[in-house]
Each structure stands twice: as C-alpha cells, then as structure tokens.
Automatic annotation (TrEMBL):
Pathway: Cell wall biogenesis; peptidoglycan recycling. It catalyses: UDP-N-acetyl-alpha-D-muramate + L-alanyl-gamma-D-glutamyl-meso-2,6-diaminopimelate + ATP = UDP-N-acetyl-alpha-D-muramoyl-L-alanyl-gamma-D-glutamyl-meso-2,6-diaminopimelate + ADP + phosphate + H(+). Transmembrane segments: none annotated. This is UDP-N-acetylmuramate--L-alanyl-gamma-D-glutamyl-meso-2,6-diaminoheptandioate ligase. It comes from Pseudomonas saudiphocaensis. Belongs to the MurCDEF family. Mpl subfamily. It holds the Pfam family Mur_ligase_M. One of its GO terms (molecular function) is ATP binding. Reutilizes the intact tripeptide L-alanyl-gamma-D-glutamyl-meso-diaminopimelate by linking it to UDP-N-acetylmuramate. Its EC number is 6.3.2.45. Residues 313-435 form the Mur ligase C-terminal domain.
C-alpha cells in the first residue's frame, strides 16, 4: 500500500512514517518545513520527502493519505484530498487501527516530560529483554530512532493531549486505549485549541475512561489538576509517586543525578545516571511504576535507568568550544524552562549559565504563557530572548521585570554576537526552542570557533 503523510516532519507523524515503512508500506510525505532531527531520520529510512503542499504530490493517487494535525482547511493538499475523494485518516486513528490493536499499550501523558518518560520506559523494557514497540515524539539516544514495531505485545507511546486532526478534535491519546497510563502533570497549554485548563482536564478524563479496570494509573501526589481528573471517575488501580506516594526517591546528590528508589517503604535500588533535575527524578519513579506493572522488578529498572542516555534535544550537549558548552533543549513552557535550568544549576554550581529562548510554540505565539516567562529564567545568569517581527506581542515588555540580565534580539546574528561577547571558558549556553531555531546551534558553534 502507498501511504502519503501530510505534515510528515512533525515528531509524531515522522514516527508514524517509520512504523508504516516497517509494516511494509511504501511511504512518502510532505511538510512545509523539512528539518532535523525528523528529516534526517526519515531520509535514512529511505522515505521520500517533498517540501510544501502542492497537489501534484498526490498524483498518482496514494492508497491512503494520513493528515497531520498541523494541517487545516485551505491547505492546497487537503483541499485536493477532499475534492478528489481520496481516502484519508488522522495519524492517531491510523496508529490505533494498524499498530496498537491487541497490544499492551503503556502511555505517558502530561504537560511536561512525555517524551523523556516514554523514552525511559521503552529503554527499561528493552533492558529487561522485553523488546517493546514504541512511538516517541523525539529520538531516544539509547535507540537512535523514534519508533519501531517491537517483537512483543508491549508498546510504549507518548500520549499527547493535542488534537488529532482538523476533522477530529479529540485529543490524540483518546485513540490509544492504554492498559498502563502515566499522568505526569497537568498545566494549561495548547492555547490555540483549549480555552482553559478545565477543557484539558476533560480530555484527560476521556483518557482515564478508556483504561481497563485491570489497568493502572500512575500520577504524582502533588498535581491538583490530576486529582480533579480522577475525581470525575477512575475505574482502574492507582499508584502515586513523590512525597507521601507509593513510589519515592531519596536524593543521594542534590542535582538528582543519584538517588534511591523506595516503593511502599522498601528500598528497591539506586539510580546513578547522566540526567539532572527533580523533574527527571519524578519521571523515573513513574517509569519504574509502569515497568513493574508489566513485570519488570524495580531493581532491574533502576539498573536500566542508570544506563539511560536521554533524548535528542532534551539538554543534549551539541558542542563544546574553548570551554563553552552548548546544549539543545526542547523547553518551551515556563515550568519546563525553570525545571531544566534548576537541574543544570544544581549540576554546575556557580558556573555562568546563558539561557537563549525562542517563544515558538502555538501557545507562546498567542502569549498564553507570558505571565511566567520573566521568572522562568531566574536560575540562569542571563537570558537572551528571540523576538522576530512575526511574534505578535511585546516580548521585551513581558521579560522587562526578569530577575536576571535580559536581552531581546530580533535576529540570530544579534543572539550570536551577544553570546560571543559574554561567554567565557566554562559558560553553559542552553538554547531552548521546540523548533529548529534557524540552525542557531550550529551557527553559534561555528562563530565561537
């Protein structure tokens, strides 16, 4: 079967393409912007990519068109599909019908940490010899690929609350029907599709409704929004993580790089890994709870996490030039920015940290997270914000009250010049964006050389 994917370079759709190819289909796709890491992965898989949405890419007609949620009415390719009556489906629906049917699905949901947690979980199962399938919205470095079918009933999926397609406004995760569900946290996000937090909580309730009575819901003790979700109805077993929960961590190092795992009062093992930050410790506890649900003893899980290499674009060290270290990070929400910087600060102590941030997500562009931005960088020594003309709101005024020295730039060249002027040997530069940021990482490294 020839499957053509519209919006193929999104992390979810690119992963879907990999699975379709592994199932034996001929897969092609197109996107408005073709950029790494997904474009690199797809090209390595031999998947033909087209830039743009000209209808000619749908001639001769494919057997099925999978339409990404970034596409809407008015898009030339979408209009062609509808006018010609070509068969089409959303990505989550295709995944549910052709990959997840009959599998034991383990889903990681929440505003933050989905990609990292699902990567951890896939790796823990792999380490335990369970050969899971997975679909992750990023590239876990232990695997080097974002999706695979796997050789057993177990399938790990990053369960996103974003909508499925222009013709299906349900959250993606409603399609997945997990048996094991991690609900990491819940904050207001995706301002382009959700009017308020209550609307997102309603979608999480729909997810909880699909989990079997013999299934398991895992959540932290500290999340009031998740408590409200479960208050709407929960028909499955529940385990909690964090303070006062079933699963707890005793930090052996302040930055979270070493900790004991405690389950119901009993020490299960020690995690000693490359990651930092309280958020990753929380992700680890949820992972171990989920893995135990499918038979992985926590001691083996802790051993696996000690060999976990994180995910591309999650505090990924991309260059070190004359003592200046450059990281690429996906953080694009005030909470994620703050927790990422907290983990790095605890690791490097008084070493200078420069945070470079592009407010690129749809919620950011709509100004939904403005209130928390100025404070989110408090643990850096300075912040450089990117405000292109197209942003649509006054970023400079928003971050003017920041507790650290702040610069707002309207070009990559200005950012590079500022970093080059201020970075000294030992400086940690964290570049945060949920997109390619115009190749800033490579351009900055080149300029520093």
């Amino acid at each position: 079967m020839h499957i053509h994917i519209l919006g193929i370079c999104g992390t979810f759709m690119g992963s879907l393409a990999v699975l379709a190819k592994e199932l034996g289909h001929r897969v092609t796709g197109s996107d408005a912007n073709v950029y790494p890491p997904m474009s690199t992965q797809l090209e390595a898989q031999g998947i033909q990519l087209t830039q743009g949405y000209e209808p000619s890419q749908l001639e001769p007609a494919p057997d099925l068109v999978v339409i990404g949620n970034a596409l809407s009415r008015g898009n030339p390719a979408v209009e062609y599909v509808l006018n010609k009556g070509l068969p089409y489906v959303s990505g989550p629906q295709w995944l549910a019908d052709h990959v997840l049917q009959g599998r034991w699905v383990l889903a990681a949901a929440g505003t933050h940490g989905k990609t990292t947690t699902s990567s951890m979980l896939a790796w823990v199962l792999e380490h335990a010899g369970m050969s899971p399938g997975f679909l992750i919205g990023g590239v876990p470095q232990n695997f080097g690929i974002s999706a695979r079918l796997g050789g057993t009933p177990f399938f790990v999926v990053e369960a996103d609350e974003y909508d499925s397609a222009f013709f299906d406004k349900r959250s993606k995760f409603v399609h997945y029907r997990p048996r094991t569900a991690i609900l990491n946290n819940l904050e207001y996000d995706h301002a382009d599709i959700f009017p308020d937090l209550e609307a997102i909580e309603r979608q999480f309730h729909h997810l909880v409704r699909t989990i079997p009575g013999e299934g398991l819901v895992i959540h932290p003790t500290t999340e009031q929004a998740i408590e409200r979700v479960l208050g709407m109805g929960c028909w499955s077993s529940v385990q909690t993580t964090g303070e006062g929960g079933d699963w707890q961590a005793r930090l052996l190092s302040e930055d979270g790089s070493r900790f004991e795992v405690v389950f119901q009062g009993e020490v299960q093992g020690i995690v000693d890994w490359e990651l930092t930050g309280q958020h990753n410790v929380a992700n680890a506890l949820a992972t171990l709870a989920a893995a135990r649900h499918v038979g992985v003893v926590p001691a083996l899980g802790a051993e696996a996490l000690s060999a976990f290499k994180s995910v591309k674009r999650r505090m990924e060290k991309v260059a070190e030039i004359d003592g200046v270290t450059i990281y690429d990070d996906f953080a694009h929400h005030p909470t994620a920015i703050a927790t990422t910087l907290d983990g790095l600060r605890k690791r490097v102590g008084d070493t200078p940290i420069i945070a470079v941030i592009e407010p690129r997500s749809n919620s950011m562009k709509l100004g939904a997270h403005r209130d928390g931005l100025a404070e989110s960088v408090a643990l850096a020594d300075q912040a450089i914000w990117y405000a292109p003309d197209s942003l649509g709101w006054d970023l400079a005024a928003t971050v003017a009250g920041s507790p650290v020295p702040t610069t707002v730039c309207d070009s990559l060249e200005a950012i590079i010049a500022k970093v080059k002027a201020d970075a000294t040997p030992g400086t940690q530069v964290v570049i945060m964006s949920n997109g390619g940021f115009g190749g800033l990482h490579g351009k900055l490294a080149e300029a520093l050389r």
